[in-house]
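Input C-alpha cells:
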C-alpha cells in the first residue's frame, strides 16, 4: 500500500541539489542499482502535483519522529548514519554518477520531524531540501568528530595521496633496515618466463596423454571392425543317372452344362428419398450484443483472462513490470475476485464488482489488490469489441499512474 508521509509547497523549502523533478527518482535508482534496494528504502519518493510535493513510500504502519522514545530516536539516527556511510564509501568509486556530484548535500533535510519509521525501517522525507534558516545533517548528529571525514569526502584525491605517501615512506624505511650494504648479483628469471615455460610443459603433457588415448581407441576399433575370413562353399555334383520322376496324370472332370439359362429382371427403380434437413446448432457467444444492450450482468458469469500485453508500474521505483496473467471471475450477480501475476512471479488477489454505466461496463476494485505486491485501488471501464472480447481501461483512484489498456475474453 502506498502511504503519503507528508507534503509541502515547493516555495516552503530551499533545494540543495538539482531542481529537476526527476532528480530524486534518479538518485534512488542509482542507490538501488549500485548498492542495494535496502539502502534505497530509507528515502521517500516525491510525487509532484502542480506546486506541491507529496512524499510517498510502500508500507502499513507509520510512526512520526515525535512519537518515538529517546532510545528509539537514537537507534533510528544510528541506522541512518550507518546506511549513509555505506553509500558514501561505495559511491566514491563511481565519479560519473549523479549521486557523486551531490554526495554531501543529497541526504540533508529541513528538520528531524522529516524522519518517520515505516514498518520498522527509518524513512527520510524532504531530503535534498533545506529549511528557511538551517538544515539537518544526520551524520553530525551521531558523531561530532566528522570534520576530517567530510574534508576527505569533498576531496577524494586527498585520501589517495595520503595513502600513497605513507606507503612510500614505509617502503623506504623497510628497505633501509633490511637491505643496507647488501648486494646480490644473481640473475633470476622473471615470473612471466617461468610461467610460460610451465604452461608449455603442461600443454605438451596434455597432448601426449591425448595421443595415447587416441591410439588405444584406434587399437580397439581395429579389433572390433576386423572381418573374419569365410571359406568358399564347394559346388555339389549330381550323378549322371539321376532321373526326375514323372508326375502322375490327373483324371479329366466333366461338368454338365444347364440346358436353359434363367432370365433375371433388373430391379425396379425406387424413388429418390431425400433425408430431412439437419438444423445446425447455433454457436454460443460470450458477449451477445442483445444482452449487452439490455445491461444483463449475468452474462459475465465465469472467468475472463487478459489476452494482450500490459505493464504495471511498481512503486516506488516506478519500474514497468509485464503482467503474465490477469484473470477475473464473476458470479451471476456481478460479484467476483481477480488474480494478477507479474513476470517476476509475484501475485496479488482482491475482490471486484461489475455493473453497467451507460454503454460501458465498469469493474470496480473496492480495496487494493494484496499479496506479493499492491495494486492501487481503481476501476476498469470496458467496451464491447465483438461477441467474445471487451477492451478495458484501468485507472487508479488517485490518478498517480497512467491508464493501462488490455483486452479480456473468456
Amino acid at each position: 500500500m502506498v502511504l503519503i508521509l507528508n507534503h509541502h509547497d515547493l516555495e516552503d523549502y530551499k533545494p540543495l541539489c538539482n531542481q529537476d523533478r526527476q532528480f530524486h527518482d534518479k538518485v534512488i535508482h542509482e542507490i538501488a542499482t549500485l548498492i542495494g534496494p535496502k539502502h534505497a528504502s530509507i528515502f521517500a519518493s516525491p510525487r509532484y502535483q502542480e506546486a506541491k510535493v507529496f512524499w510517498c513510500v510502500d508500507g502499513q504502519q507509520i510512526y512520526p519522529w515525535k512519537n518515538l522514545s529517546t532510545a528509539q530516536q537514537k537507534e533510528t539516527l544510528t541506522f541512518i548514519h550507518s546506511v549513509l556511510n555505506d553509500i558514501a564509501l561505495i559511491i566514491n568509486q563511481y565519479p560519473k554518477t549523479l549521486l557523486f556530484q551531490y554526495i554531501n548535500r543529497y541526504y540533508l533535510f529541513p528538520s528531524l520531524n522529516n524522519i518517520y519509521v515505516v514498518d520498522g525501517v527509518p524513512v527520510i522525507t524532504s531530503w535534498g531540501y533545506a529549511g528557511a534558516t538551517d538544515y539537518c545533517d544526520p551524520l553530525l548528529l551521531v558523531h561530532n568528530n566528522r570534520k576530517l571525514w567530510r574534508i576527505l569526502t569533498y576531496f577524494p584525491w586527498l585520501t589517495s595521496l595520503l595513502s600513497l605517501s605513507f606507503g612510500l615512506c614505509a617502503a623506504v624505511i623497510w628497505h633501509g633496515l633490511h637491505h643496507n650494504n647488501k648486494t646480490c648479483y644473481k640473475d633470476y628469471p622473471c615470473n612471466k618466463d617461468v610461467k610460460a615455460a610451465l604452461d608449455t610443459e603442461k600443454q605438451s603433457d596434455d597432448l601426449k596423454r591425448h595421443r595415447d588415448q587416441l591410439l588405444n581407441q584406434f587399437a580397439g576399433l581395429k579389433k572390433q571392425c576386423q572381418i573374419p575370413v569365410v571359406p568358399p562353399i564347394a559346388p555339389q555334383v549330381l550323378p549322371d543317372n539321376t532321373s526326375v520322376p514323372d508326375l502322375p496324370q490327373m483324371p479329366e472332370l466333366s461338368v454338365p452344362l444347364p440346358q436353359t439359362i434363367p432370365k433375371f429382371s433388373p430391379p425396379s427403380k425406387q424413388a429418390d428419398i431425400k433425408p430431412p434437413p439437419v438444423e445446425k446448432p447455433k454457436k454460443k457467444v460470450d458477449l451477445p450484443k442483445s444482452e449487452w444492450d439490455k445491461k444483463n450482468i449475468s452474462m459475465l458469469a465465469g472467468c475472463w483472462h487478459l489476452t494482450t500485453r500490459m505493464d504495471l508500474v511498481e512503486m516506488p521505483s516506478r519500474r514497468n513490470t509485464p503482467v503474465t496473467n490477469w484473470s477475473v471471475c464473476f458470479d451471476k450477480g456481478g460479484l467476483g475476485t481477480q488474480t494478477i501475476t507479474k513476470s517476476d512471479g509475484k501475485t496479488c488477489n482482491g475482490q471486484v464488482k461489475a455493473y453497467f454505466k451507460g454503454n460501458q461496463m465498469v469493474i470496480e476494485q473496492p480495496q487494493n489488490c494484496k499479496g506479493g505486491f499492491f495494486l492501487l485501488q481503481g476501476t476498469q471501464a470496458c467496451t464491447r469489441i465483438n461477441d467474445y472480447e471487451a477492451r478495458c481501461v484501468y485507472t487508479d483512484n488517485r490518478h498517480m499512474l497512467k491508464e493501462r489498456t488490455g483486452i479480456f475474453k473468456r
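The chain has a mean pLDDT of 82. Residues 289-409 form a domain with the Lipocalin fold (CATH 2.40.128.20).
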